[in-house]
Amino acid sequence: MSDRSHLFNCFSASALGQELSKRIAAGSAVSCANVDAAGWAHLAAALRAETGRTVVLVTAQLKQQETLQQDVETWLRLLDVDTPARFYADWEVLPHEDKLPHADALSERLETLQALADGAAPVITVTPAALMQCTLPPAEIAHRSRTLRLGDRLEPLDFIEWLEEQGYEPEAQVSSRGELSLRGGIVDVFPFTTPWPVRCEFFGDELESLRFFNPQSQVSREKIEDVTLSPGGEVGLLKQLTGPGGGDVAGTFTEGCHRALLRSGRGGRGGGAKGDGDSAGRPVSCGMDPAAPPA
């Protein structure tokens, strides 16, 4: 690993490496087709450390994405780059199939979108299939997310109504992501972007306690000071936005899809690398098609 780090450091210091950084900062597209597969994750981590920008790695298949994700997490840690690595999952559901995507896939997608909305500039792994699936526009992610803090004042019933508007399903007991329940002054909710469901205890209209809890035993876990609640799903909200009564949101929906991940019209069959330095906030994107011709 030290030899590879030395190699990348030499490359970054070279005229070619500096030119690459300049082109990325200017929003240009560059080919990554001739980068050896073993070096993709290291290149992504190095680009993120060098530019401070979001990096999107596009690879052909799910198995390659899973391997690449593990490598990215390793290199971000080794290079001491303080940014999350996000796995943007494919729904793995065909349009004609009468079933919903798996909750884990929705969780990974919403975690990625939430990180982008929060300005975290993560390194993201993704497949073309996932990029082709519409998702919530960035403005909707921000509008449908909410941060709760101890001492906040809100009526529990108003809170429940807000959660239902964001796609959460009322249940007698919360056991799965996207569910909520109300028992007296206690609201349980399981966001897609937290490791455990959250128990919110109210004293009147004051949020007195926030805890994670075990969905199997329903026993409370550690206390937390605050929590960010993501939208309670994706598919149901998409139907609302694009269906009758969607209004202006439906009109701008297609334009907003994945704007935070990739902008179209750049690069060829093998994809490329591009910067988010302009006013549109475009991320760096590294195409991972080894069959693509060099730029």
Percent of residues in helical segments?
Answer: 25-40%
For the secondary structure, the number of strands is 12
- How many helices in DSSP terms? 10
Unreliable parts: 246-260, 262-284, 287-295
Would you write up a description of this structure?
This protein is an alpha/beta fold and 295 residues long. Helices cover 36% and strands 18% of the residues. It has helices at residues 2-13, 15-25, 40-51, 62-78, 103-117, 128-132, 138-143, 156-165, 235-242, 247-256; strands at 55-59, 85-87, 123-126, 146-149, 169-170, 179-183, 186-189, 198-203, 206-213, 220-223, 226-229, 284-288. α1 packs across α2 and α3 packs across α4. The relative contact order is 0.18.
Defining traits:
alpha/beta
Q: Secondary-structure blueprint of this entry?
A:
Elements: H1 2-13, H2 15-25, H3 40-51, E1 55-59, H4 62-78, E2 85-87, H5 103-117, E3 123-126, H6 128-132, H7 138-143, E4 146-149, H8 156-165, E5 169-170, E6 179-183, E7 186-189, E8 198-203, E9 206-213, E10 220-223, E11 226-229, H9 235-242, H10 247-256, E12 284-288
Parallel strand pairs: 1-3, 1-12, 2-3, 5-6
Antiparallel strand pairs: 4-11, 6-7, 7-8, 8-9, 9-10
Helix pairs in contact: 1-2, 3-4
